[in-house]
Amino acid sequence: MNSADDLKAVGPRIRMMMPKLTPLEARVVETVFGLRDFSEDTALKDLAAEAGVSEAMVVKITKKLGFSGYREFRTAVSSYIRLPTAEMHQELSAEDSTREIIQKVFRTSINALEETLSILDVEGFDRAADLLAKARQIDFYGVGGSAQIARDVAHKFLRIGVRANVQDDSHMMLMSASLLGTDDVAIGFSHSGNTTAVIDAIQLARKSGARTIAITNYGGSALAQIADIVLCSTAQGSPLMGENAAARIAQLNILDALFMAVAQRNYEAAERNLEKTMSAVTSKRKDKFP
Questions:
Q1: Which domain holds residue 138?
Q2: Is residue 98, in this structure, part of any structural domain at all?
């Protein structure tokens, strides 16, 4: 794990595994990232004492996170937290100036974009673009903030002639999913990957024969487990902004790239449809002023 991209992926991959950890195991990982002086010199016994667990427990957790043991975990994490992008994530304080607030919000989003790019499954992304380019019907499922992302994406796709239904009501999701078939695609949007309404709809869409895609922050989540393709965003949590704020920016970028990839697969048709849809709304713009 020597390249910059590999190092940037350390934090995101650990965060994506957090839902699989017990509360105690998660607390140990949070202890590690809360230590400002965690480094290659941090002894196993010292970390165990700091976290209030046994050395064997620490080793078990590192293996559960995909490392061969504590040494590999320590090397990877200590290298990750020294990256400039890892330092970008800063909490808001009551003493912050307006300029500092703006910088912290922007840097959190920049960090989410950098880290999401480092973990994005390019092969899965390619398969998702192929499915959407050939789909007879596309369903987007999401609630709350995730529904807003779905609407933004549906708007972009419509511009190039690709129609998608956006459902944000649990009953409507299930009704629509029940009517899908083998030529259709359903995309479930859920930051946590645990939104019951979205999971139920994706399950039914899959049972109906449709191909399914999950857009989530957690690759090990319930939604990710049932989808054919998983495209993950990642963002560090913040008590004030939460993970959702920065993850939303990352997810919008994933879907913007997916939109471009679908357009590329049928470029001439996309160009024709873009001209039509732009022309259709021209009369609603007031480009010239008296």
A1: 118-281
A2: no
| Of 159, 115, 132, residue with least CA distance to 16 | 115
Interatomic CA distance for residues 104 and 170, integer angstroms: 36
The DSSP secondary structure of 32-46, one letter per residue, reads HHH-TT--TT--HHH
- The answer to whether the CB of 230 falls within 8 A of the CB of 214 is yes
The DSSP letter of residue 116 is: H
The amino acid at 146: S
Q: What is the C-alpha to C-alpha distance for residues 142 and 162, in angstroms, rounded to an integer?
A: 19
Higher confidence at residue 165 or residue 286?
Answer: 165
Do 17 and 66 form a contact (C-beta atoms < 8 A)? yes
Alpha carbons 181 and 208: distance in angstroms, whole number = 6
Minimum mean pLDDT among 93-107, 121-135, 218-232: which range? 93-107
Q: Does residue 254 lie in a domain region?
A: yes
Measure Cα distances from 130 to 24, 182, 285 in Å: 42, 14, 34
The answer for residues whose C-beta is within 8 angstroms of residue 218's C-beta and 6 or more apart is 15, 16, 18, 19, 192, 193, 224, 232
